Amino acid sequence: MQRKLLSLCVALLFAIAATAQNGKAKYVFYFIGDGMGVNQVNGTETYLAAMEGRIGTKPLCFAQFPHVGLVTTFSGTNGVTDSAAGGTALATGHKTKNGALGVETDLSAKVSSIAEKAKAGGKAVGIATSVSVDHATPAAFYAHVKDRGMYYQIGKDLIAAGFDFYAGSDFLQPEGGNEGKDLYAQCREAGYAIARGYDDYRKKARKTEKMLLLQPEAGSQKDRTAIPYAIDRSKGDLTLQDITRAAIHFLCQKKTDGFFLMVEGGKIDWACHSNDAATAFREVIDLDEAVRVAYEFYEQHPDETLIVITADHETGGIGLGTGKYELHTDMLKYQRKSAEAFSRMLATQHQKDDKGFTWDFVRGLLEENFGFWKHIALDDKETAELEQAYKAFCEGVAKDHKSLYASENAIAATARKIMNKKAMVGWISDGHSNGYVPVFAIGAGAENFNGRIDNTEIPKKIARIAGYGTE
């Protein structure tokens, strides 16, 4: 009798524990650092310590979260994933073919994301990014297409999903269908207010049931593909921190039992495709500042909030140290612009004043924007490399260096390579790798993210913890 009673008590305790875990995360934050592998995080922390004049690390906010794991990222068809398949795994718990979004490897069977499950369960839902709202990672949470390049259809899927809040730079292809109306008009018909910038958001937030937050029109006219890199930011630019703050504010005013919010730091990946270490580390810091906004919310609701930070894959195969048992990330503090922005500035100056575009003038720009000669000593060979790149650029014989998301002229590309060399940061490629990515978690159910896990397990764990269901 006592044994039966003990068994019943144990069973009851397990049931209570399961019930406590199932649905205990009322508020879920899911941050994805696109391209952010283990060394992107470690390199950023090393850089932050170097900025304080010391060897070691200065921990990011999210890297101090108590629960940490390593994540495998291969796709359903490739040893190295792309962002579409990686995003689909993180959003749905299903592997798929590279390039596909929200479908199985057969490219036809749709799979539901945790965002869709959260919406079906009565939660408010937000999807936000520092790149375009129809890019691969955000689209993995609402779209179901065989090709990530189907931007117009992805935009229509965004509207059809009916989530409460979307944010990013803009649409990549707002026109393209036979409806006679662009995606902006279709969004408005579906009940979305379109805010251009954070100030415009604050004016419109309380007057609408659904929100699409995009960067100001001036920003989209310059570059609709993404908001500016943190290193290139100007006053008035939309930031990932702005986006996260707006998302929390908007979702909290919804009359729902909690929310799900995915925020992507999309340009970590872009900077790593360009092998631009200074820009990449600043993008990781920028993501961390967005996480801090969520952490402020967590501190007010610690028993009901879950924050998870991970990545879809690693980009660039970044190495910290290039053979001399040294690392000089302190050199990166002298870089004032991304290599891409520096390239654009050089092109503008050359077009504006061909005669004034002398080697001495360009040397001055390199000193100002990379610290060369003034703060970072260059030997004769390195100086000659830059001068040769300048001559080839002026003669029109130098080919631009093209990566997935950027194009740099010979001067900017050479400056970037020398900066990496001086900092002793190496790169394997300008593509993705199969390296582990980290997962960090804090809050309700965060203990489930310890150890070695596959990317498909993360959304399943979140769904269980938040009570969305697993399938």
Number of strands: 16
- CATH topology type of the largest domain: Alkaline Phosphatase, subunit A
CATH homologous superfamily assignment of the largest domain? Alkaline Phosphatase, subunit A
**Count of structural domains:** 2
Low-pLDDT segments, ≥5 res: 1-23
So what's the overall shape?
Answer: globular
Strand content: 5-15%
If you average the pLDDT, what whole number results? 94
- Quickly give the structural class: alpha/beta
Strand order of the largest sheet: 5-6-4-3-7-1-8-15-2-16
Task: For the record, give the distance between the C-alpha atoms at the N and C termini, rounded to a whole number.
Answer: 40 Å
The top level CATH class name of the largest domain: Alpha Beta
Radius of gyration: 23 Å
The CATH architecture designation of the largest domain is 3-Layer(aba) Sandwich
Helix content: 40-55%
Q: Can you count the helices? A: 17
Multimerization state: single chain
What about the largest sheet?
10 strands, mixed
Textual characterization of the structure:
By secondary structure, the chain is an alpha/beta fold. The protein folds into 2 domains: 24-320 and 430-466, Alkaline Phosphatase, subunit A, CATH 3.40.720; 336-423, no CATH class. The chain is 42% helix and 14% strand. The chain has 17 helices and 16 strands. The strands form 4 sheets. It has a 10-stranded mixed β-sheet, sandwiched between helices. Strands 9-14 form a two-stranded antiparallel ribbon. Helix 2 (38-51) crosses helix 12. It is globular. The relative contact order is 0.18.
